[in-house]
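dude i think i finally got it to work??
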Amino acid sequence: MGLNVVWAQLWTLLSVPAMARGYRPYVLLSPLSLHLKRYFALLGIEAINLEEHNHTGLPPLAPELRRAFDAAATFDGFRALRWDRMPIGDIVLSTYCRHTGKVMIDVNDPVVRGELAQWLEYIWRHYHAAARIFERFGIKAAYFTETFMEEHGAIYYAALEAELNVLRFAGTVRDDAIIVQHRAWGDAERLHHAALAPSSWETVQRLPNLPLVRAQLEQNFADRYSDKWHRSKRNQPGTQLLEAGAVRAQLGLPPDRKVAVIYSHILYDTIFFFGTDLFEDYATWLIETIKVAAANDRLEWYIKVHPSNIWRGELNELTAGRYQEETLIEQHLGKLPPHVHIVSADTKISPLSWMQLADFGLTVRGTAGLEMAAMGKTVITAGTGRYEGCGFTNDPPTKEAYLDVLARLPDIAEITPQQTELAQRYAHAIFNLKPFTLSSVKARLATGKTRVVASDDIVYVPRQPEGGALPQDLARFGAFLDRRDCIDLLNELK
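look at this
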């Protein structure tokens, strides 16, 4: 379903070191992907037609799963649906929200339930089709980027169940780098791509030369919030980097007024996957957080709409041209008090300036929380799956405890220098050590493009290899490929 063409390019490149290790590549395709079909035919890579394995001879939906679906009368009951070890209820809900843009779900609405039933059948069908394909073609390893929605989630869990060597890839804000990690049952099953496995975190904490870590992290912040990379600057077009004092003056804030920034997520995208949330969904978290903010006027509150709303192209398609945050506030709170503000996605103040301004950051698991903690700011989380529990964030165990912390702001313990150091080490690992540089290709704008909006606006042009050996980046990936016990592909500190 519309996988970005850029992954066809990059996985072709990364199949080369796999072939050098004895693998034979296949590509799993929909027959509707005509351009990709031609592309892989030119490369001589055999295509497996997903639809050929998706309809005939598959087992019907298991009666026990159908009964569990029919009996699920609550949201939590629906989320609890499982088949084998696949969280099929979560995958169905996540897929439904992604396609409809809905952020709160009434599982007892007949129309909603009918659509959920269709997605249940769809995920079931693709799970079993994938299992059949893996066995028939002797598949030993699988490359993924999406792992929790549509057919991708079904195929991913079929790969885990078949004990394949599963690798997950993700983009970064750098044009020339991606993230690579192994996936497996346990800690790595739902690991966020921009998080560290426990074993990696242990290694990172032992790295010497803290001054070098801090210097490289500082440079990374400067690069990410500049015009250096096309992918990063699409989140901040036309913004201005201002000192905290200048931002306060622009906003009319006195120097001693504490500031809390609520970092809203994309409320309908990739929900229910990364860890466990204190609240039912991102929307409920946001509503309950704003309610407490409205009642606590001892500091200034800013609700920051996610900057990717600028370029995702879904504001008009799925949300009628309005930020969902605005709609939720109107429906559940009405008019905001004067000490609570909405910051639109197209604010002209740099995201970095907002983080420097804030004293407190509130998020479920957003990247801004890690960035703020690395700046020595106090961050309060409302979910697991990223950097919580690593010693540098305030992680209330229940929703009641979370709301109590917010009600007491600003009178809570602030982050210590020791915690800031931990945050800097973690952030350095995510922003400096995890991005895997693709040195054997050159990233450039696609023909006819003047800026990057979608991932496919960048293409990768191979560099001329030297001496016949695998380029250094491909050799390094090949060495990582079969090290299934190593979750994160990390660079060395140098």
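The domain at 202-433 is CATH 3.40.50.2000 (Rossmann fold).
im so relieved honestly
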